[in-house]
Amino acid sequence: MGTLSSGTKRFVPVSENIIREAMRISEKNGVPLRDFMEKILETVVSYMRYKPNLLDVIHTLDALEDLRRIGCVMLPQNLVRKILENASEEDFRELLEELGRAASWYGVVAKAKRGSSIENIQTALQIWLPNIEVYVASTDGSPSSYKLVVSPPVHIASSPRVIDRLSMILETVVSSIIGSMGGSILSITNSNGIISVVFSLGSK
Predict the structure, then answer these.
(1) Would you tell me how many other CB atoms lie within 10 Å of the CB of residue 163?
(2) Strand 133-138 relative to strand 2-4: parallel, antiparallel, unpaired?
(3) d(CA 155, CA 192)
(4) How many Å is the Cα radius of gyration of the chain?
């Protein structure tokens, strides 16, 4: 069995099991098999221009779809900065609680789909916190204990109020995702907006 590439037509060997599954899905969606396969390849290849690792591409696409399902949207950083600067204390607390709930729900879904490995936790955090440095390392003496450091971008922290609120958001999202993906937080510190978390992650 094979499938056809876009442009110049060329047969490419594909597993019979994959073809059968693709046929099942394409029939379910009322799309011709050839169009279905070409659309998948076109989409994946376009993402792989920026993320060469295929598994990372698939995880990223699936994770972004999970975000969409739970009602999350991405906002420009200048708008985020204005919200953090101008929101009332009551509105900010409501925002913080909603982010915590959404991050926890996302973590539950991500764990069910992709497991609770340290790599999947890091991927989840990077999806939730784009343009924010997320560094993870094993701690000495325990193969299941990790230290995670999250550092916000300098250009978004325009005032002490924004720095303080952004650090609260980071702490909420990080702790919610780690907890909902099977991690146990051992300690968490906040120093000038930089969040440092030590947590354990047992075998699941």
Answers:
(1) 16
(2) unpaired
(3) 14
(4) 21
Q: How many CB atoms lie under 10 A from the CB of residue 137?
A: 10
Give the pair of three-digit tokens for residue 84: 């953090």
**Of 186, 178, 169, 64, which Cα lies nearest the Cα of 125?**
178
Contacts of 114 (CB under 8 A, 6+ apart): 59, 62, 120, 123
Distance CA 51, CA 47 (A): 6
pLDDT, tens digit, 9 for 90 and up, residues 115-162 = 888 888 888 888 887 777 888 888 776 778 899 898 877 666 668 888
Distance CA 167, CA 150 (A): 9
Query: Locate tokens 């560094």: which residue?
Result: 135
Instruction: Name the average pLDDT for the chain.
Output: 83
Distance of alpha carbon 47 from alpha carbon 86, whole angstroms: 36
Q: What is the rounded distance in angstroms from the CA atom of residue 64 to the CA atom of residue 23?
A: 25
Q: What is the DSSP string of 54-85?
A: HHHHHHHHHHHHHHHHTT-----HHHHHHHHH
Angle between helices 54-69 and 33-48 (to 10 degrees): 100
Distances 95 to 60, 101, 186 between C-alpha atoms, Å: 25, 10, 26
- Write b or e for each residue in 188-197: b if 16 or more Cβ atoms lie within 10 A of its Cβ, otherwise e: eeeeebebbb
